[in-house]
Amino acid sequence: MPYDRVRWLESEPLLEDLPRGFAAETADPAWMLGRQWQMNEHQGLNASSPVRVEYRASSVPVEPLDGDPRQDPRLTPAEAIVESEPGDYWTPGRRIAAGRRVQAAAPPLPNDPSLLLTGLPAPYDVLDGTGPDGRALWERRVELELAPAWFGETPPDPEPSDQWDPAEFAYSADFRVGGTKLRLRRHDGGTVDWYSVDADGPLSTPVPGPEPVSVLAGRATYPGAPAPRWWQIEDAAVDVGGYPPDRAHVATTLLIDLIASHADGWFGFPVGARAGHVVTLHEVVAHDSFGDAWPLKPPGDGWTLFAVSGLGGRSLLVWSTVATPLQGPVIDEVDVGADEDANVLWAVERRVAGREVETAAHPTPIPPEAASAQDPPAFTYQVSTDIPAGWHPYLISGSAGRRRFVQARTTDLSAPEPVPSPEPVSDLLYGRAAGKPHEIEPAAVPSTGLRLVRRAVLARRTDGTPVLWTQRRTEPLLTPPALRLRWDQFVAAAGPS
Known about the structure:
extended
């Protein structure tokens, strides 16, 4: 049924007043107030806003790892403490420079090939064998009667302990603070923060500060937060729909509830803290705009969003972490994954000492020439498919009462004498016990496999001095490495018999 349009809105293309266009004028403010009243947006409480907070806190420093002052969490980033390994000091430049200093200051060195540079990563490998190795000379300085002053700079003594577990492909370390232990378990490399550790128990009663600290409170903000004032035009970047709730992540559900119910009712206040300490809040009192004081306490039932497990809801660990470290190129790279068809676990060396490993492809069988009744085709017997270079098998076996993947070696049976395959070159595939094959915990390797990478990382301590260490880290793979192995096969020869 047709009807008449009495009023409608049309844009005015000839309007030349730009400031008026950006003013967002409202033709009927009373209508907007009425709609807010209908939507119960005027149902407020006779409440106030916090303007000032007084708190009493204490800080307990985390003790240096293994009592080494160079591994002090107050100075050294937690990543460098956990991921450092013995020999990090001996960079290629230091090995070369120390060797040249000793060669210039000491009497003639013995003609011993073990004292020469070797095993340098690319591109420094061109210097292998060209001069003495400063690290080898330092390790044998007593035998060779070399003065420590000839080396220039004194290496660290003792070397940092190795926290890497070669069976778990992860780091594990124990820190002590205030009579309790902070346990870092199965850390796969990268950022170390408060959520990376668990505590054996709460701290012994720390002494709070002598006087309470007074700070100003402010509204809690986050990207996409709506404007807290009723008459403020929202920013175009605010997109509540960009934060869909996810049942697997409780934080996103809480964020939607925060936006929908009381987005402007959250406030925060700064707490003074120092890196490498556990900060404990003993007393917090909020003063509102009405002049009332409100003592604040942690939520009941032990629930909290930011807390170290076992440390208590009033304490939080503050690490000195690395925000933007400088990462060097990959030195070693190894792919690890289970081959269900071959019933083995493969560890494939992709890169060793900065150089890519040349993996030999399977030889393509040569088809026989056209055969005749007088010259039938010839075949040769092959025990199994050739295994490319750098592929190392692991077989499931019992070890110390538990089942683990144990490193094995293949053998070439085509020669008159059996020839075992070369051992792995990368130290990522060696265990801590010398003379024993490398073992891998089955639970450490996901069904899609993983990639181990090793690279140098450079950052700075809190006092500004540089710190260099070698990081080992795991990365996921889309699919595990696999070979189409076949046994007891006849391969066609190059020509007729």
